[in-house]
């Protein structure tokens, strides 16, 4: 199963993601901002997927900033972006290479499918 780093600034959504990841048999690592995400990226032995909200309130480019810095630390990291807003070309053009998107709200089955696509 995968180790998934979740970067989400809304506590309720972060908790729901953690439970969904655990229920699917994956290992979650939780971060509420860029600083805590960077700590995980530097310290964790293994991280397979970065699951990041595009619209993090305290960053100019939100999840894009997190993803770009994360790829700089772990070049083999897979990135799954999420947002409550529909995906636009402008949003897609800011994704790291190979980045995927899942629209909020998402079901556990949709999440598992998206993670599976990234890992295979």
SSE topology sketch:
Blueprint lengths: L2 E5 L3 H13 L3 E5 L2 H10 L5 E5 L8 H12 L4 E6 L5 H4 L7 E4 L4 H12 L1
Parallel strand pairs: 1-2, 1-3, 3-4, 4-5
Helix pairs in contact: 2-3
Helix content: 40-55%
Structural class: alpha/beta
Q: Strands of the biggest beta sheet: in what spatial order?
A: 2-1-3-4-5
**CATH C-level label:** Alpha Beta
Q: Any idea what the CATH architecture is?
A: 3-Layer(aba) Sandwich
Number of helices: 5
CA-based gyration radius = 13 Å
Descriptive key words:
Rossmann fold, five-stranded parallel beta sheet, globular
Tell me what you see in this structure.
It is a single chain. The chain is α/β, with parallel strands linked by helices and 120 residues long. It has one domain (3-103): Rossmann fold. 42% of the residues lie in helices and 21% in strands. The chain is built from five helices and five strands. A five-stranded parallel beta sheet has the order 2-1-3-4-5, sandwiched between helices. The longest helix is centred in the first third of the chain and has 13 residues, at 11-23. The model has no long low-confidence stretch (mean pLDDT 93).
Short account of what is shown:
Helix content is 42%, strand content 21%. The protein has 120 residues and is an alpha/beta fold.
């Amino acid at each position: 199963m995968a180790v998934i780093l979740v970067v989400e600034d809304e506590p309720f959504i972060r908790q729901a993601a953690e439970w969904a990841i655990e229920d699917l048999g994956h290992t979650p690592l939780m971060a509420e901002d860029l600083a805590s995400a960077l700590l995980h990226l530097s310290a964790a032995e293994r991280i397979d997927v970065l699951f990041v909200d595009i619209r993090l309130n305290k960053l100019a480019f939100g999840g894009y900033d997190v993803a770009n810095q994360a790829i700089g630390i772990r070049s083999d990291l897979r990135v799954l972006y999420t947002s409550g807003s529909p995906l636009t070309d402008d949003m897609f053009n800011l994704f790291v290479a190979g980045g995927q998107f899942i629209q909020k709200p998402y079901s556990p089955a949709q999440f598992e499918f998206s993670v599976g696509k990234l890992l295979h």
